[in-house]
Amino acid sequence: DKVQISYTFAANRVDLFRATAVVHKNPLPGDRPAAAMSNFIAPEIKKFVIWDYIVFAGLFLVCASIGVFFAIKERKKKTSKEFLVGGKQMSCGPIAFSLTSSFMSAVTVLGTPSEVYRYGASFVLFFLSYTFVIIFTSELFLPVFYRSDITSTYEYLELRFNKTVRLAATIIYILQTILYTGIVVYAPSLALNQELEDRSFSLTIQKTYPHLVNHLVFFGSTVTGFDLWGSVVATGVVCTFYCTMGGLKAVVWADAFQMVIMVLGFVAVLIRGTILNGGTTNIWEDAYEGSRLNIFDFDVDPLRRHTFWTIVIGGTFTWLGLYGVNQSTIQRCISCKSEKHAKMALYLNLLGLWIVLVCAVFSGLVMYAHYKNCDPWTADFISAPDQLMPYFVMDIFSSMPGVPGLFVACAFSGTLSTVAASINALATVTFEDLVRKIFPNLSDRTSTWTSKILCILYGVLCTSMAAAASLMGGVVQGAIGGFLTGITLAFWVGIGSFIYPAQPVKTIPLELSTLNCTLANSTALPTTAAPITAADRPLLADTWYSLSYLYFSTIGCLGCIISGLLISFVTGPSKGEDIRPVLIKPVCNFFCFWSERLKTLLWCGVRHDSQDEEFEKNLPAVITDKTGTEDTFKNNVNKENADQLPGYNPEEKSYTNMSRESRL
Fold first, then answer.
1. For residue 637, what are the contacts with CB-CB under 8 A and spacing of at least 6?
2. Which of 392, 455, 465, 474 has the smallest count of CB within 10 Å of its CB?
3. What is the DSSP letter of 139?
């Protein structure tokens, strides 16, 4: 039974590695050596003009205005429930937009087109992963969380296990989210700024960590002309402002606006790029000739970076951790006015995920068609692959002032939505799991102000972490929070793959050409990037450390499940009849063609047949147990008295009129 806490800890570890890779990126096999000098003359790319800055500033102004609007509109509603979960009156539309924009960060906007450009369009297979994740989340996880009427996902852990497990999960989540959010703020600012004066950082790392120098790539870019720390501070201040002023409603509606900006930015790039490269037919032909359309690779080798199986299986585990148990997701789902609206929001969000994915993948194909004979990465016109998309935008829109600003707004929309969701979720978890436990009798007014102060605190911490991200190597991120077996395994393989990248045969990029680049002072004409080979590789480097990064979450989850089963077996498993059915959604019940005998066997003793399948009917007994003793599931309570709890409506089978304090 201890297995059920596993997903809270281990399912989304790869998210941290993925974000870290944008800041301090491993030179993947096939990347240009760091010391390589360009033999080509880079074309002149214009920088931002005043209209671009105006368009970009408009994004921040609108988001801040949304916060002010909801602060004024909701000024008479001063409960923490209104501030943290919107009074549970949100509709499915804005929640769907909010979910999509929050999990399609600037890493997606900048990284996915570059991924397709260099490795091909197999990334589009993530549409299958997204589909499985949304189905599992809406049908398995959401019913338990929504019908339990909780605000923090970690409240479930106390109902299911005890306070210690809840506290441990809360602390891990807070630390991991602060760290990840800081990197999300820093990465796009770094990729888009003009010239990062970070050579001193390079020298410091070289002296302190000489073995890591070959694993760092610095974003010394001349892409847009953005000031690095100006954009970092602006992002942190604006997100903190509208989170604090308007609460969850401001976050959700700002996310919805940012989602529109993201799509508009992609559409502008696709239209302009398609026109310049001769239309859709020519782009498909160029992609086919360049082997960018080799999507279906059914190789079962787990060391291969992207195959059908790594994307569908590994991608599903990775994203299920982000959707199924993530506080940001569940908090917005339970803010919906009904469970039906929450499910509809998830399925509409799936449509949004598909749209953004298709836009990003096709942007990569358009970019390849544009640079198929003069790759700016191989020719050393840019300093990192993640700058390909900004470089491409500044190239094709050089004569159209204001449009580059729209794309940068598109990239930062992903950042703003992710950061705002994280700040709001951090404030909610801290208030519900820590502050309310210490001060259970806070008034509504005090609770609301406490929540706002927490938003400000976490806004400052996340922005400060962005500054710290510029001073740390990627390995440091793996040191926090790994005390369970699953996390240990996930971080072990993750850090190992960071230090010892897989051999070129497993992850080498597709061919890139510089045939039509203007030659400078060399008669040599390199047409492809030269692979990098690593020396003194340990035994595990070409096996365990070379696993596809998409399997990191899978390893973490399976590690938790296996270790949980073993520990439960040694210490003595809980009796199934002592576990309340309200806290478990049996997967086997979805298979209507299975026999009742088989289903009963797979319930592992939990009496799903003894109580109504509607979780609301079972909730009173759980709550009564919880108020009677900390040993929730061993206390024998007369269920007839449960229906007498104040606020419980037996006809509606809910606690709509019951205060949270009396419920817990």
1. 621, 624, 625, 628
2. 465
3. I
Q: Would you say 475 and 499 are in contact if contact means Cβ atoms under 8 Å apart?
A: yes
∠ CA 235-238-243, rounded to 5°: 120
Any idea which residue has 């106390």 for tokens? 158
Backbone angles phi, psi at 649, to 5 degrees: -105, 105
- pTM, 2 dp: 0.74
pLDDT in tens, 75-134: 777 677 788 887 788 888 889 988 988 877 777 788 889 889 988 889 899 999 999 999
Q: Rounded distance, CA 447 to CA 343, Å?
A: 29
How far is the C-alpha of 12 from the C-alpha of 153, rounded, in Å? 15
Cβ atoms of residues 599 and 41 within 8 Å = no
Question: Count of CB atoms within 10 A of residue 208's CB?
Answer: 10
Classify residue 101 as exposed, middle or buried by CB count within 10 Å of its CB (0-12, 13-18, 19+): buried
Q: Which two tokens stand for residue 131?
A: 């589909």
- DSSP, collapsed to helix, strand or coil, labels residue 419 as helix
- For residue 49, the Cα-to-chain-centroid distance in whole angstroms is 32
- With tokens 């589909």, the residue in question is 131
CA distance 18 to 475: 12
Per domain, the residue ranges of the chain are: 49-481, 579-663
Q: Which residues contact 513 (CB under 8 A, 6 or more apart)?
A: 372, 373, 374, 375, 378, 527, 528
State the Cα–Cα distance between residues 165 and 566, nearest whole angstrom: 18
Q: What's residue 367's pLDDT?
A: 93
The string over 311-344, giving b where at least 16 C-beta atoms fall within 10 Å of a residue's C-beta and e elsewhere, is bbbbbbbbbbbbbbbbbbbbbbbbbbeebebbbb
CATH H superfamily, domain 49-481: Sodium/glucose cotransporter (1.20.1730.10)
